[in-house]
Write a structure and sequence with these properties.
With 482 residues, this protein is α/β, with parallel strands linked by helices. The chain is built from 12 helices and 17 strands. Helix 7 runs antiparallel to helix 8 and helix 10 runs parallel beside helix 11. The protein is globular and about 75 Å long.
Length: 482
């Protein structure tokens, strides 16, 4: 090892000035100057341009951990109340785990909630979501979505990464990979999880998988310094830190002279500069003290029930204003009382969860719209699965619902989304799709399309073959697109 390299390593090992400890990966997506084949999967195209023109420049993905009960929220099925307590009729078309569940003792659980029609679309929405119901004509729904696994871990990965197996890039990583970031001072992909804890699979939900590390999500802390090791130590002045960065830059540039094709080293150089800029930009962006009273009320920040998710939604709006490409907001913790996994007492569970998110999400849609940002922002509501219309075993006084990977309901709003549109339909029990189920890859293809990306062109060479979010390809749900 030559003396210059040795001195460089020794200097870097001692330069622990806060930002110097930041991981280079997700902090430099906008600045990484690698070749097109590594940075962007669209061979022969500009890495910062979409495949075709769409209005949406940003995406906010609202993920409800645990499995939202569709028939108690967005999928109105009055026959359930008429048959409450009875077993489901035998259906030869039902296969797999659902067939197994129905082979055992079970009883239909009617929805304990009233539904009402809203908007020009006349869509039925549960009484649990009165604020979201006011935006129903801006939302497009997808019913009868199918994932390949009824367990939380694999299904969560399937919805958030396109594969039920660990190691694949998340949806946000693919979008950030294809489009890059609009803000040189912030990461292109930011994650705000439930302050009560992490979702199932943790960071794998927003991981970059086999894509370059620049495209993984950056997790923001709910309190204190938004990103670990971002704050400058008190004993280091801005000018002193600037001199350290300049020295690091000089050493790295000298090191690069014989390693011009090293994209990782180039990324490291850029990461130091981005980290320096983020020390000012990130704290200001997450500081909500300057938001006026009417905005705080719009998101429910002064209400103990809605405060947590209200903060997450308000941060997402600020990220859009700052040019962040993709924001992932997670509501729900693992599998328990703070997730949507209501195997017991679905009535109490759904009341709790919906109270926490209804006002904040409606506030987000209203705020984006009044600022003229909804047209350029795609908002997606998702969970990892739906629920069954029955409970296995005895009915009991406080019945819940089981897992159902064949009846997930999702909705989208903003951008080129055709408000009031519907794709797919479940049977009268909300057990499964009436026609062919809609695979999650079709939803992913549609999300990419709404962001101006073709899922067949958005590819990355890994392990000897071109990989993509939709794996074997998805069909865009064209009737959801205006």
């Amino acid at each position: 090892m030559n003396s210059l390299s040795s001195d460089r390593r020794r200097f870097l090992s001692r330069a622990f000035n806060g930002a110097g400890m930041l991981g280079l990966g997700h902090l430099c997506a906008d600045d990484l100057l690698a070749n097109d084949e590594i940075r962007n999967p669209v061979r022969g195209s500009n890495p910062a341009r979409p495949h075709f023109v769409r209005k949406a420049k940003h995406c906010i993905f609202l993920f409800m951990q645990g499995g939202v009960s569709q028939m108690d929220s967005f999928d109105y099925k009055p026959v359930l109340n008429q048959m409450h307590g009875k077993p489901l009729p035998r259906n030869p078309a039902v296969t797999g785990e659902l067939e197994g569940r129905m082979a055992f003792e079970h009883a239909i659980v009617g929805s304990p909630f009233k539904f009402q029609q809203y908007g020009e679309s006349g869509r039925h929405i549960s009484e649990l979501l009165p604020h979201l119901a006011q935006h129903v004509d801006e939302m497009a729904f997808v019913h009868g979505i199918k994932t390949d696994n009824q367990n939380h871990g694999p299904s969560t990965l399937h919805v958030t990464t396109g594969s039920q197996f660990p190691g694949s890039p998340s949806v946000g990583s693919w979008i950030n990979y294809g489009l890059g970031s609009e803000n040189r001072n912030m990461p292109g992909y930011i994650v705000v999880q439930d302050p009560r804890g992490a979702p199932v699979n943790g960071a794998a939900v927003w991981g970059n998988g086999y894509l370059p590390a620049t495209h993984q999500g950056t997790l923001l802390r709910p309190t204190g310094t938004p990103i670990p090791n971002l704050a400058r130590p008190e004993h280091i002045s801005p000018s002193q830190q600037r001199r350290e960065f300049d020295a690091i830059q000089a050493l790295n540039q000298e090191h690069m002279k014989t390693r011009a094709d090293n994209s990782v080293l180039e990324a490291r150089i850029k990461a130091y500069e981005l980290a320096f800029r983020m020390q000012t930009a990130a704290p200001a962006l997450v500081n909500l003290n300057d938001e006026p009273k009417h905005i705080r009320e719009l998101y429910g920040l002064d209400n103990e029930v809605t405060r947590n998710f209200g903060r997450q939604c308000l941060l997402a709006r600020r990220f859009v204003e700052a040019g962040v490409r993709y924001s992932l907001l997670v509501h729900g913790v693992q599998i328990g009382r703070d997730s949507w996994d209501d195997h017991g007492n679905v009535e109490a569970g759904m009341k709790k969860h919906c109270r926490e998110v209804d006002l904040p999400v409606a506030g987000l849609l209203a705020d984006l719209k009044q600022r003229g940002l909804l047209e350029e922002t795609l908002v997606v509501w998702a969970s990892e699965m739906g629920r069954t219309p029955f409970i296995n075993g005895k009915l009991g006084k406080t019945p819940g619902r089981e897992h159902n990977s064949q009846a997930l309901t999702m909705w989208m709003a903003g951008g080129n989304v055709k408000g009031g549109a519907t794709c797919g339909e479940t049977d009268e029990f909300s057990l499964r799709s009436i026609d062919a189920p809609i695979p999650i890859r079709d939803v992913h293809a549609t999300i990419l399309s709404l962001m101006g990306l073709d899922d067949e062109e958005l590819r990355f060479l890994h392990a000897g073959r071109w990989r993509q979010l939709t794996d074997i390809g998805g069909s865009v749900l064209d009737n959801l697109i205006a």
